[in-house]
Amino acid sequence: ALRIGVLALQGAFIEHVHALNSLRGSECIGDVVEVRTAAELRSVDALIIPGGESTTMALIAERRGMLDELREFARTRPTWGTCAGLILLAHRAVHAKQGGQRLLEVLPVTVSRNQFGRQVDSFTATLDSPCLGEGAAPFEYVFIRAPAILSADSPEVQPLVRLPPGRGQAGAEAGADGLLVAVRYRNILGTSFHPELTSDNRWHRYFVQMAAAT
Ligand code: GLN
C-alpha cells in the first residue's frame, strides 16, 4: 500500500486528505499524511501539492529548507500539482509575480497564472474526460483563480484535458483547441482545476493508480 502525502504548508490541503481517505479500501492507499517538513516528505511514496497561492507556498517551503528536496522528490516520484501546485511544478510561469517567483521547474510546460481572471471570475465547466476511463461520465471542473497551461514544452508531455474555447477564458492564447488544463509527464500529473472541491474522486483515483504503477 502507498503512503501518500499532501503538502500542507498552505492552501487547500485538507480537502485532498479527505478525498484520498474516501478512496481507502477500494484503492492501494495505506497512510494519508500531511507533509510539512523535509523528514515527512522523505517518508511518503507519492505527493499532492494543493491549490492555494504559489508564491506563498514556495516562500514557506524555502523558509523550511525543503524547496530543494521538494524539487528532487517531484523529479522522480509520483507527484500531482493542482492549481497553485501546478504553477510550482512548471518550468516557466508567465504573468508571474513581479520580481519573479520560485518554481520547482520539473514539469516542462509554460503556465499562465490567473489566466481566467480574479477570484470573482471563478467558474465550473463540465467536460468529457476520456483519461478517466472508457465511456467515463463527464467531470465537473472547478477553476478558482486558475492557471492555464499555455504550452507543452516537451513532446513527452501528454495532454489529458482541454477547456474548449469560450469557456471562462479570454485572449488569443486559447486557440481553436482551447487551453490545456490537465497534463501528464513521466511521474508528474499537473492540473489547473480543484478536483478536491467536488465529491467526485475520480481524479484522485487516477493519481493513486498512476502512483501505484510508477
Ligand atoms: N492563482 C494562484 C497562484 O498563483 C493559484 C490559485 C489556486 O490555487 N486556486 O498561486
Helix content: 10-25%
Query: And the CATH topology?
Result: Rossmann fold
Major sheet description: 7 strands, mixed
Task: Describe the global form.
Answer: globular
Indicate how many domains the architecture comprises.
1
Report the top-level CATH class: Alpha Beta
The SSE order reads: EHEHEHHEHEEEEEEEEH
Mean pLDDT metric:
92
- Compute the gyration radius: what is it? 16 Å
Helical element count? 6
Determine the CATH superfamily.
Class I glutamine amidotransferase (GATase) domain
Uncertain ranges: none
Strand content: 25-35%
Strand order of the largest sheet: 2-1-3-4-12-11-10
Query: Quick one: how many beta strands?
Result: 12
Task: Characterize the structure shown.
- It is a single chain.
- This protein has one domain: Class I glutamine amidotransferase (GATase) domain (Rossmann fold).
- The protein is of the alpha/beta class and 214 residues long.
- The protein contains 6 helices and 12 strands.
- It is globular and about 45 Å long.
- A 7-stranded mixed β-sheet has the order 2-1-3-4-12-11-10, with helices on both faces.
- Helices cover 24% and strands 30% of the residues.
- Residues 51-54, 83-84, 87, 113-114, 144-145 line the site of glutamine.
